[in-house]
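agent> Task received from the user: take the single chain below, predict its 3D structure, and emit structure tokens. No templates, no multimer pairing.
agent> Plan: (1) validate residues, (2) run structure prediction, (3) serialize to tokens, (4) report one or two observations.
agent> Step 1 OK, no nonstandard residues flagged.
tool_call: predict_structure(input=
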Amino acid sequence: MAKLLGSVMTSHVPAIGRAISQRLHDEPYWKPFFAGYPPVRDWLAAARPDTVVVVSNDHGLNFFLDKMPTFAVGAAPEYRTADEGWGIPALPYFPGDLDLSWHLIESLIADEFDVVSCQEMFVDHGIALPMALLWPDQNWPVRIVPVIVNTVQAPLPSAARCWKLGESIGRAIESWDADRRVLVVGTGGLSHQLDGERAGFINKDFDLKFLDSLTADPQMATRYSNRDLVELTGTQGIELLMWLVSRATMHGTVREVHRNYHIPISNTAAGLLLLEQAA
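)
tool_result: status=success, residues=279
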């Protein structure tokens, strides 16, 4: 059976792509952010995942405001990046894992999640940049299965519903009849707001509380409404829902291996957390 290794949760700000392409890793503005990733890469080299389930949102590349599914799962043989208008260079395509994709889709539907199955899908910065941060040579040693959560167009799924989605994904991974090592990556957040009267809003205190909760009290965020979470984290800070899905895939004893938190990156609180599933 497949083995769930753990979860990496990381921000996916578009400006990261430009910083990578321009090799700004050691500039003072960017160095505290990029310096957080080598310990995670070392862990990945030892853990050797075969497949990565990437939980992210879509920023208008596959779905727009006229058609916005609550949850969608990629079931494509490969995933390519496309021009989003941020000046991010195209990355090598990501190979898909069709076997896990369809097992996951069937398992989620059996658990009464009405997911959209996407046999063609582009991936935007929400998936491409976290992958480039984890494997900077961009010679992907893994296959991916994208899981898309609506954090763009109201009504959004609640934190409690996203937690249940993560639990269902975790059960599907562990019931997958394959000798594969699986990592879950949750992307987005932390606190930030890109527009309106609160543009530039960052809530460090809540960000750190949320990071702590993912080991100490992992369902803490489920006790907030989405309106409360937006008030606490900003309009786009609701992306922490993808972190919550990722965390919920893990059960039993979970160990924090590494974390990093840095502000600001392009008016965003940038977070990184690596959790390991205990044996």
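agent> Step 4: summary for the user.
The longest strand covers residues 254-265.
agent> Done.
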